[in-house]
Amino acid sequence: MLLAVVQVGCATQIAPGRAAETPSAHGDPAAQTSRDLDLGRAALGTGDLTAATIRLREAVRAQPDLPEARESLARALYAMGDLDGAVEELRALLRRQPDAVRARYFLATALMAKQDWPAARRQLDEVVRRQPDLVEGHYSLGLVRYTQGDTAGAIDSFRQVLARSPDHADAHHNLALVLKVTHRDADATPEFLAAARSGHAGAQFFAGTAYARGFGVEPSLTQAIGWWSRAAAQGSTEAAAALAELRQTALGRGRPGATSRQAADSAFRDYRAGMWSEFPELTRTGDDDSVGAALLRQGRGREAVPVLIREASALSEPAQSALETIYLRGVDGQVPAHDARILNYFKTAAAEGQPRAQRLLQELQAASEAAPAPAR
Amino acid sequence: MKTAALAALMGAAAALVSTGVLLLGGSGLTALEWSAYDAWLRWRAPLAVSSDLVIVVRDPASGGEGAGDRALVAGLITNLTRSGAAVIGVDVPLGQPSFADRRGAAGDAMLSQTILLAGNVVFPIALDRWAGRAGHPDADPPPGHRAWPALSTTTALLETRALTPPLQAMVQPAKNVGHTIAQADADGVVRRVPLFVRLGDRGVPAFGLALAAAFAKGDPPRIRVDRHGQALVGFAGPAFPQGFNVVPLTELVATIERRETETLEKLFAGRIVLLLLEPSRAPHPTPLGSMSDGVIQAQLLNTVLTSAWVRPVPFASAAIVTALLAAVAAWLWLAARWWTAAIGLLGLALVYTASLFVVPSRAGLLLPVAAPLVAVVVSSAAALVWNQLSSGNRLRRLEDEVGAIREALVRQESQVEGLEEDLEAARAAVARSTGTEEGLRAQLAAARAQEEQTRARLERLEREARSGPPLPLSDAAQERLREASEQVGIVTRDPALLAAFRDLEKAARSSLPILVAGEPGTGKELFARAVHRLSPRADGPFVAVNMAAIPAELFESEMFGHVRGSFTGAVGDRKGHFEQANRGTIFLDEVGELRPDHQSKLLRVLQDKSFHRVGATRPTTVDVRVVAASNRDLERGVAEGWFREDLYFRLKGLVLRLPPLRERRQDIPLLAARFLQEAAAEAGRPAPALSPAALAALEKSDWPGNARELQNCLRQALALADGAEITAEDLRLTPREAGRDEPGGDAAVLAALRQHSFDMQATARALGWDRSTVTQRLKGLGFRALVEAGGDRQKAALELAGDAALGRTVELKLREYSEHLMKVVEGFPTVDEAIAACRRRFKNLPERHFRSLELLVRQSFARRAPTPSV
Asked: What value does the mean pLDDT take over residues B691-712?
């Protein structure tokens, strides 16, 4: 967020190097100020925050009423972590130009970074009053309202965002979170799903959980596995943990009973079967066939590895076997041996206690120790 | 019994006072009250820690992040639940939404979902103490948890409010939610936790209790709380987390990441897992050091699990103990000496101090400290004040009693004296007028004999009157008598004394009894010995007996002897003085000191010439020449009734009156030379000469002790003189006032009386006299003082007492004496008869004082004279 704000600020400025093209301004104070401003902005754009701060301070000192100079200086200070300095410059700017909405929004952002929630709330209220269609203003207001415990206000703000930008995935996600926190799962789950469909990993995890537990939707472990898998693929540790837990249940480990085991096992099987629908062009040769294997058969090795990993994570024995073969030997012309993605999968599976993966890793370890040391 | 009741009353009052003082409070008193508990916590053996409790503590290696990230907490909960943890407590107040920079609502939603899915999570909410319902900021407090009991409006619990309304998405799915309020005592130390507080109409349990309740499989344990609904936390010392089953957070995270499910299950399955992610947040002082809310709740949880409850003694019991101790302290001060009380109090303190440490361990009860201490101090102070006041009162009462007793004693003494005098008078009267016919005949015979003697005396007096005064001695006769007298040790040139010696020579040849009268030291025994030596009995024994020196009870034994076994101590026969003097002379010195009964016994011997030894059945007959002597006027004794007249006549065959030395000063040089020679011979040195000044001083002196005093003076001078001549200084004669230092004189008696506070008995012992004699002397002094004071009894008493403190006593005595005197004389019609009666009754009163008595009687009769009628 911080970086985004800085970059947004810089995007409106001149391109780096422009200052160098400006004729010498020695003897002309206005020209010198303009030169300092340009140099400062250029330094800010390149990340040279110290130089940017020096130049921009010179510009502000020369022309205190120059809004661009103050706002740029505030952004440089913000980027350096000098939040108080940034707030001070922005307040000075707003005293001269109260209608500078973007500067005010930046001030609210700095106040949020300072965790001065009441001051940030006041500035954001002023921002959306002056510019009601500023989506980011409503979004930040929703965050601040929630932090202050104003869940109803937060919901309202996020809805304001979605009213102006219906595909705003973060707004969907945060709206869903606030609804969930206020115990309104039925309203939250559709929002989670909307965000999940937009590819929001966090929303995908919650969507999976909603299906797993039936929060606002018909329970479906298969759907849950699907959403968790997508989230896990994006690095959601919670989703990965949820999948791992479900796999343990399906494998009969841990405390859940037989009914849970059967339900989990069935869900993984259905999930694997459902993957065929993602590739309607493929033909399934039998119950033991896997989507990945079918892709390999068609020579689509690059596509096959992630699919095989998904299938193996869904407890597909053929997929695990195929992955083991691919890792050890590779696929001629398609996938090289010792693919790191496959090794990661086996490490995860071994950590979960899956015997095949553990055995493979032991063999690899033994082979590594038996191999002669490379010559110097 | 009275002391015990008083001590009990003081104890009860002190207990009330101490309760009031404690209610007024103060950090000092509170610290004192809990000092024993705090010390006990530190010194006792560490409490057992429940094996059902596992505490996960953030360790330094885990860094500072994470507690605020609720997603991390959710992950821990998920894994712990997966490991079979029965109940999970999370010491992170969840009331406030997460900040945006800490995953904001995502973290909250994650945790809320985890709590719901786990179904075994207990967490605290942030509550604040709220003084009352009026003006409550949360008019509609947030909906409570289903596990919170509904409260009636009358249930007195600590009122609270939610600092931040808790997120319902977390409250509702949690197994329970508890508070972490720790009530600090007035000294700022947290020892107790309210088991429930009020939030709206619901009772919120303590976090530790909520965890225990979520874990409990059977009936919840019975926990006794104080009257404020608080329970003492049984700190499992000595310092957290020592003794507890603790898993560091980093170790837990690492184990989860390594997916060591068996290890996790072994650690957590079936147990309560308490996540103390902020163990150092907002620490409170406790008896065992600073502890956060979470740690205090962990201690409470362990207390519930191990049932290691300690509770203060109930108020009523504490009050009874306090009153009892205060009463014992008061009783000690009231009933014992101060050092005994101090030692007792010290022992009591030691025993109670030991109880302070033993009772909590044995019975789980905490004895009060401040209240008993204050009460003991108060009751001790009250008892001491009481002692002071009552001592003053007792002293005043004693002084009053002493005064009353002194007065009663004076009255009784006077009464005894009066009765003794009455008895003497009655005896005399009886002896004179009552008795059997024989008695009367005897009295008649005696009276006739007396008449005969009186006739004979009268005739002798008439004869003497006819023959005129004794013929003056010629110089030759005087010379012969001087020589003769010197041969028997009598040195004198005084014609009167030589005349007396002439009579002695004549009478010595017969067996005529001789009575020698004279002041002490005038040579009475010398004359008696002369009688013996000049008598035909000169070869017989001469036995001198001082009658005043014979104890009354030994009179018969000493005088007449005793036979063996006649009384205890009579181990053999013993001859009495009379028997020893058989065929010789017995000299009865100080015969005037004989008691009347002894006078009778002596008279019988003189009459019968025989007597009975004590214990003997046969009489013993002796042939004895009796020479008696007295410095008292026996003739007056007869007149006053204290000396038997018949005995007097038996003794006074010849009366030799020896003049005092001051009346024969011409003898002083002779006697001095004689005494010096004797003393020098005794000392084995030549006799020194007397200087003229010394001789003049000797002649000038009055010598109240007569020749004996002169002899002692010269012996002393011889011993002290340095040269061959004795000077006046060597004599060390000091001018003295009449009677001042005279032994037995009025001044000496008065000094002795004053010295012994006019206690007759003590004074008599000091003087070696009997009490009656002292009384008579004081009586005489009193009469004289009354006369000199013109009848002013108080003035006279002060004059006699010499000290105002004794004035009252002396005044009482004077009043008794004068009232007795007036009573004695009141029945007599004339003053002469009254005075005559007084002479009989006050026969032992010295003559010089009798004149005062006579004057008082005359004044009394003068006042009695009828007023002439107009």
From this structure: 86
